[in-house]
Specification:
YgfZ/GCV_T_CS; GCVT N-terminal domain-containing protein; six-stranded antiparallel β-sheet; Elongation Factor Tu (Ef-tu), domain 3; GcvT/YgfZ_C; YgfZ/GcvT
Length: 346
Amino acid sequence: MNPAWQTFLRDRHAVIENDSVVHFGNITTELQETPTTTVMADLSHHRIIRFSGEDANTFLQNQVSCDIREINPNQAQYGSYCTPKGRILATFLLWQHHDDLLMQLPAGLSAAIQKRLTMYVLRAKVQLTDASNDLIRIGIAGPDAALLIKDVTGLPCHFDHPLHVTHDGVQSALCLSPQRIELITSVENAALLWQRFDQHAKPVGMDCWNWLNIESGIPVILPETQEMFLPQMVNLDAIGGVSFKKGCYPGQEIVARTQYLGKLKRRMFLAHIDSTQTIKAGDALYSSDMDDQSSGNIVNATPSPQGGFDALAVIQQSSVDAIEIHWQSLQGPTLEIQSLPYSLPA
């Protein structure tokens, strides 16, 4: 986290651990108000890798699952970086900033992913740098989010195109959904924006933003779940994070074969788990039709405003259709499957 930005947030009662804002005084109240109130969150728990140089687009096109040709100054994309076996090492959000490409991914993965990608640069004219401390990201969410951003920044939010981006030279607004927008700007401008937003939006910790992300059905691969899933298992094909029209990238053959041969047995679902025990990414799930074998795994989980936990979970589709799914064991709490905000490909 940028030191000046960290000091600014601490002065406004932010409790910060491991460069991430945990809460602003009362994590329970913040979480309970998040579903209905306009909130703002610092997003330093994600970091930014900057790709610059004349070969940056070509380089990334050969490395990731999304189609870089669809990214432009006004269009971002979700995507994934996979092993040669098609297993996801990282999911990310990618957008254009001036002449560069910016990749946003969890702080716990960014350094290792940057190092791995750098190994494949070879003679390509591309440079990878950590831009996390240069660009502050603020999440605004709630029923008045778009109107508030327009009033404070002057930037319009267009939701007719998913992941639309608007810029004015000082700041950018990335429209994640009609009620969830990410602002990207400098440290100096971020401080001014925060103070203006603070009059109309409640500051909240990262768990509140993570809950909104889960409710939106957006998977975030963490160190605990690296190499567990194919892109389609976490619904990246449903949110534009996989292209089946582009050329080769690590894992492309297996990802394409799974798509065209119809062998996808597991999908990601939104679920609520009524448990006082902590639900974590990577936790195993069980159902009686699978005997002692796991029928799935938790992708992301966070405390729910209603108590218990809300989660994204990759589960054997036949098990979801036929039987109850349990956390950690057949005697564990049952997953209450809920509707995702998007439809899955047939």
